[in-house]
Design brief:
The chain has 24 helices and 32 strands. It is α/β, with parallel strands linked by helices.
């Protein structure tokens, strides 16, 4: 009998051994999917990780035998202590008399994973210390994980008949159905499902001809419509007969059909851009990774377009990664216009079926030349990858937080590119410390583009001293007179304004309302987190804890209070001050529904609204014409956020938000409100002084042992019981200290110390550059396994977050 190793979509380390019935032996290849039994009753779609080979029990590094495991996916953590799951490569005593289960079927004729993808899975699992099964879950679209497999199928869709695609006609149609309430109900349901009910401008969009990638109108299937209205097909047919609705057929996903390859000529680069482009080509000759540091609106995207075109001419594929939120219609349209049907788009708003289809297309003889996608597009198969572009490379959302794998798409993409011998280009106006450091060290190439396209000036940034204004009782809620005046002028001139409030403004902390003092950790350069019910202040990084002082050590006042205010309150207040303004708000709450994000942006772009209030979402890759004023309401919540990266994030956020001002035609004005106007970082933002900012921060990072000089690993322990997790964390801390000594900080309680009924402890590891990470991580794995195997800790969860953000 021959055996293979199979990766299963379970949160478990390593692979599982299965026997291959002789009839299937020829069909099994690395990267094909196989259906396998698991436990007593389960079946999973696994991915074959090795070629069939005889199993020599005495030599093999034993893997789990599924016959003996009792693991259920949802309770895996609970049972891990009693099963024989071994991490990859762990040596155990050979077990004789093992009866490996047989695979049930081989699902593919050709692999769904190319060798590079499989290697990437292993790299991610290994580097981020995540179970391979979790990487599998994150990488493959669900359709490829399902047992029934994926079949492209024709689907019947519904849309309004042409003659009813305007509001007036639509009202007439609705009226005409007054007596046919069931039919009226179907029509109304269609209007709601399609998004037309909420936004009549969608009436102008034609689903049958418009490119689906840029479509805002939601496509509605006949099935969906009948289901939501509990209607019969006969009833529905009435609307078709009346020519109010009509149906059309499409293959699900419908890739490649009907897309007009409306390719326009690529815009010629100006002189500065041409120079940068040539420098990039040169840098790429001698570096695998090159950083393009170009100010906002310098035309980085135009340069990418030229590089993509060059790669296509050289018969290479391109992966273009953007943070999810920046993947707006604006950028998709721009690329579609140039690359037409050569461009595939892959992100979370696409249905799973569509994602499966893109996956399949990448494996076909005619894959997309260019993939524009969010984080998870890094897992797509490529045949001839030649260039990877990571736009807005500083964006923290490239790192997956929860669940595992906690990978950074930038790092994964760089590794992927190297597997193909491809080049990576990182682009941003505000490089991450890590990337800039690598460039300074000569590890990455670097090209700078310091002028905006058409030499539009960088915005003027005016700092407003909120502390002083509050003292003089001149703040109107959170608005300074200067900001209100600027907004008023903009509105009167028919221009637009953006007010930015940091999302992290909600983070619990305390401050002195008289002098603005915020308690800081004496051991780390971060603000302390406020735990209200205990009246305690703690530091995430070293566990330092003390009580909230009853008076301010700075000014003796007793006005020490918790704080944080949100965008909703700002919206209410601004509408009182400017009743004539057309205000919209963009934050997590207002963008929950599909298309809401785009609707808000389009309304603002088209001038339907003229005052936009928002969180960081508004800073992402948007290009507005008429914004003359940007107000940063409160820089301090960013600066005081309890994190060693707070200045880095604050600088980037303020610079990016400022970049939205005065993009075309006119110098923009930014009003930056802060209580810390004399902090160097504020002046660095004002002067657009990235290198000054970088230099000062680098000093700090070195002194306090942070990246880029150290790699951080956070250790999380979770348990239902607080005492148990506490003693487990203490034990784990001392086990880690045995080897790593003072590199270990904690354990302490994270700011959010209980999630999903589990109590959490966190230990911080700071590993200096040059350490042998392979050995370090092996030890970490051992400690983790040992901890989880401890009976007295029961259902303890332990996981690592490598290079946390
Ligand atoms: P960045 O990506 O650096 O923020 P963009 O590429 O978005 O900058 O460019 C800003 C604006 O200037 C866009 O509207 C873009 O179309 C325009 N632009 C930039 N370079 C050119 C060019 N060479 N020719 C025509 N328009 C350009
Ligand atoms: Zn004070
Ligand atoms: Zn501390």
């Amino acid at each position: 009998m021959n055996y293979i190793e199979v990766i299963l979509p379970l949160p478990l380390e390593g692979t599982f051994t299965y026997a291959v019935p002789e009839v299937m032996e020829k069909k099994v290849q690395i990267g094909v999917r196989v259906l396998v039994p698991f436990g007593k009753t389960k079946m999973y779609v696994g991915v074959c990780n090795s070629m069939p080979a005889p199993l020599n029990i005495d030599e093999t590094e034993a893997k789990t035998e599924p016959t003996e495991t009792k693991i259920e996916p949802t309770t895996a953590k609970v049972e891990l202590t009693t099963t024989k799951v071994e991490p990859t490569g762990a040596k155990t005593k050979p077990r004789k008399s093992v009866n490996y289960k047989e695979i049930l079927s081989v699902m593919d004729n050709e692999p769904v994973l190319l060798p590079q993808q499989l290697r990437l899975w292993h790299w991610v699992a290994d580097y981020y210390m995540s179970p391979l099964g979790d990487v599998y879950k994150a990488a493959l679209p669900s359709g490829l994980k399902a047992e029934d497999g994926y079949r492209p199928k024709m689907e019947t869709y519904v849309c309004l008949d042409e003659r009813y695609r305007n509001e007036q006609a639509l009202h007439i149609a609705l009226d005409s159905l007054k007596r046919a309430t069931k039919q009226q109900k179907i029509l109304i349901a269609y209007l709601e499902l399609s998004g037309i009910a909420a936004d009549a401008t969608l009436l102008l969009e034609d689903v049958t001809t418009t490119n689906v990638d840029t479509l805002r109108l939601k496509r509605v299937t006949q099935e969906e419509l009948l289901n939501t209205t509990h209607s019969t097909i006969t009833l529905f047919r009435n609307l078709i007969d009346k020519h109010i609705l009509r149906t059309y057929q499409r293959e699900v996903g419908r890739l490649g059909c009907g897309e007009t390859a409306d390719e326009e000529r690529i815009k010629p680069l100006n002189e500065a851009q041409t120079t940068a482009y040539n420098q990039l080509l040169l840098q790429m000759m001698s570096h695998n990774v090159t950083l393009l540091h170009g100010v906002t609106s310098s035309g980085k995207t135009e340069i990418y377009i030229h590089l993509i075109q060059k790669a296509i001419n050289d018969h290479q594929q391109v992966l273009y990664l953007l943070p999810e939120i920046a993947l707006t219609v604006q950028i998709m349209e721009r690329l579609k216009r140039v690359f037409g049907h050569r461009l595939g788009i892959y992100h979370s708003r696409y249905s799973d079926a569509e994602r499966v289809e893109i996956w399949q297309k990448q494996l076909s003889a005619h894959p997309y030349d260019v993939i524009l996608g969010a984080r998870s597009a890094v897992f797509l198969p490529f045949k001839q990858l030649g260039l990877v572009i990571i736009d807005e490379e500083h964006e923290t959302s490239f790192k997956q937080q929860d669940p595992a794998p906690r990978y950074h798409a930038r790092s994964a993409a760089i590794v992927l590119a190297q597997m193909y011998g491809a080049k990576t280009l990182l682009g941003t106006a505000t490089p991450s410390m890590e990337s800039y450091y690598n460039a300074q060290q000569g590890k990455y190439g670097m090209v700078t583009l310091a002028t905006r396209y058409q030499d539009i000036q960088m915005p003027e940034i005016e700092v407003v001293d909120v502390k002083d204004l509050q003292r003089r009782k001149m703040m109107k809620s959170m608005f300074s007179p200067r900001l209100l005046a600027a907004v008023r002028t903009a509105l009167e001139n028919g221009e637009q304004a953006i007010l930015f409030q940091n999302r992290r403004g909600f983070a619990p902390m305390v401050e002195c309302h008289v002098c603005g003092w915020v308690p800081k950790c004496p051991n780390c350069d971060v603000s302390l987190t406020y735990h209200k019910n205990m009246s305690l202040l703690t530091c995430h990084y070293c566990g330092y804890t003390y009580r909230v002082p009853d008076h301010c050590p700075n000014c003796e006042s007793k006005e020490i209070r918790g704080r944080g205010y949100g965008t909703e309150k700002i919206e209410d207040e601004i509408m009182n001050i400017f009743p004539e303004a057309r205000v919209s708000r963009m934050d997590l709450d207002t963008t929950r529904t599909k298309n809401a994000y785009e609707r808000i942006i389009n309304d603002f772009s088209s001038g339907k609204t003229n005052l936009l209030i928002g969180t960081q979402m508004i800073s992402k890759g948007l290009d507005f014409d008429k914004v003359s004023v940007v107000g940063i309401l409160n820089a301090d919540t960013m600066l005081n956020y309890p994190d060693f990266r707070s200045y880095e994030h604050a600088f980037m956020m303020m610079s990016q938000v400022s970049g939205r001002a005065g993009r075309k035609g006119k110098r923009g004005l930014v009003i930056l409100q802060t209580k810390n106007h004399d902090l160097p970082v504020i002046q660095q933002v004002v002067r657009n002084d990235y290198s000054g900012f970088y230099a000062s921060l680098l000093e700090e990072r070195k002194e306090f042992h942070y990246p880029p000089f150290y790699h951080l690993v956070y250790v999380y322990l979770k348990h239902r019981n607080d005492d148990t997790v506490n003693s487990a964390a203490l034990e784990m801390g001392s086990r880690l200290r045995e080897l790593f000594g003072t590199r270990v900080l904690g354990p302490d309680k994270p700011a959010v110390a209980r999630i999903k009924t589990l109590h959490i402890r966190k230990i911080v590891l700071k590993l200096e550059n040059g350490l042998d990470y392979r050995l370090a991580k092996n030890y970490l794995r051992q400690v983790k396994d040992a901890m989880m195997a401890e009976k007295r800790y029961g259902a303890l969860t332990v996981y690592y977050d490598v290079d946390p953000l």
